[in-house]
Structure prediction request, 422 residues.
Amino acid sequence: MTQSPVWHPYAHLLTQQAAPKVVGGEGARFRLENGETLLDATCSWWCMIHGYSHPRLVAAIKAQADTLCHVMLGGLTHEPADRLARELVRITPTGLNHVFFSDSGSVGMEVAMKMAVQYYHLRGKPEKHRMLSLMKAYHGDTSGCMAVCDPEEGMHSLFAGYLPRHHFAPAPTAPYDADPETVAQDLAALRAALERHHHEIAALLMEPLLQAAGGLNMTSPEYLKGARELCDEFDVLLVFDEVATGFGRTGKLFAADHAAITPDIMVLSKGLTGGYLGHAATLATDRVHDAFIGDSPLHAFMHGPTFMGNPLACRVALESLAVFEEENYLDKIARLNRILRTELLEESALHRHPRVRDVRVLGATAVIEVQDATALQGVAAFARTRGVWLRPFGRWLYTMPAYITPEADMRHIAQVMKDWFR
Ligand SMILES: *Cc1c(COP(=O)(O)O)cnc(C)c1O
Prediction:
């Protein structure tokens, strides 16, 4: 058989194995060409929150396809985009009243950063054109996003010479339920970075509560509240990248909800369409939006992805949200959380295993962090023989299951993760 011309992401071309061919899927499982089914512990990079072949999502796409597959959003609008924007304003923290659509999480973050820079330009502070990001951050793979990923461990270090330079504060270290003193240390580090550089910083970017692809680092809602106060004090916009945390992953609809705060800009993608089509939304408050109202050519926001507001994507996003609310997904997430806590934290000796550094659970997310990456060599193949699709990266063996994962299947995923350390 000749080799496929498909170039796989993050793959080492010399050592990669032939990729199994997926031919379909139902619920939490996808099915391979050879008849094997695998329980997806990652819900396909955290986006397939309803699992595969959800009848309502599939029907929504088909119905929209019969009406209107695509039309430009430049100077035109349509019902799915308009309705989705209204719904996103309704469900996100109070004050995020404006929605800019794009086609992926990375582009949604590029839009957020451009908005922040232009905001200060329009306010007469063009020198505020850099970002403050956090170590362990991951905000996407495009150039603008690579420049605000962790510069050392963030998998893009080879591009350092090519990327613009921004500022970085230490990653938060206080866990979700940390006492105030521990959080205060993290906030002191953030304050120090702002004191030094605020005159040139447009926005503080963070993945609130859960730094995902940079190592599943979890922190306290108090850190978000403190960051909100610091941004106000130093006249810096607060940007929440909720591409991974949005739509229930941390146990509330949005991570910002744990702290009851409103960021100035918030980015959504992954779970937005239930994973069924690529799309993203960058939301902004009146304060940000209204700065763009003016009569100079510099007031227009010069961004416009071809597929922004795609009707198929907007329609399936509306259906995804309807299912999420009607079927009480937050309760399903709470049930998955209880299983993960019981299996991996409470009734397990995992944290005492010599190769394990830490075990963390938040919402429908659990991670076993090991001392060094070699401890995870072979775990994907091991899981596959037990019917589970796990895809660890670096030192992190994690699950972010679809929210419809049955409880017995959730227990099985946790069991396979534990058994690897037997
Ligand atoms: C996945 C991810 C992105 C990038 O989204 P893409 O759709 O892959 O471009 C950005 N930020 C966070 C937090 C992510 O998890």
Summary: Residues 104-106, 109, 138-140, 207, 212-213, 241, 243-244, 269-270 surround pyridoxal-5'-phosphate (CB under 6 Å). The first helix runs from residue 43 to 46.
